[in-house]
Each structure stands twice: as structure tokens, then as C-alpha cells.
């Protein structure tokens, strides 16, 4: 019977978490958009730096 109490406790904790997620979904969406935009900018910077290094390596190889 003790396992039943554990399951009920787990179910109640899960329901509380789901309620908190639903209450905070608007702020989560805002953060996701910000982080997604930030990630895109970071990828662009990394690709530009990689391109610069690639050009330098090609120039060195040509010499």
C-alpha cells in the first residue's frame, strides 16, 4: 500500500509542475524567441570567423 502513496505524491507533484508551466508559458515563449535570435547571431559570427580563417589558410597554401 505504501507504493500507492508514493504514486499519489508523484502525481500531485507532476500536476503542480504542469500548472506552473501553463502559468508561465508566455514568459517562456518570450525567452525562446530571444534565445533563438541570439543563437542565430552567434552562428553568423562563428561562420564569418571560420570563413576568415579558411581564406587565410587558402592564401597560405597558395604560397
Describe the structure.
- The chain is an all-alpha fold.
- It has one domain.
- 95% of the residues lie in helices and 0% in strands.
- It contains two helices and no strands.
- It has helices at 2-23, 25-62.
- The longest helix is centred in the C-terminal third of the chain and has 38 residues, at 25-62.
- It is elongated and about 75 Å long.
Oligomer: single chain
Structural class: mainly alpha
Cα-to-Cα separation, first versus last residue: 79 Å
Q: If you compute it from the alpha carbons, what radius of gyration comes out, rounded to the nearest whole angstrom?
A: 25 Å
Mean pLDDT over the full residue set: 78
Quick overview:
By secondary structure, the chain is mostly helical.
Topology record:
Blueprint: H1 2-23, H2 25-62
Describe the structure using short key phrases:
single chain; 63 residues; mainly alpha
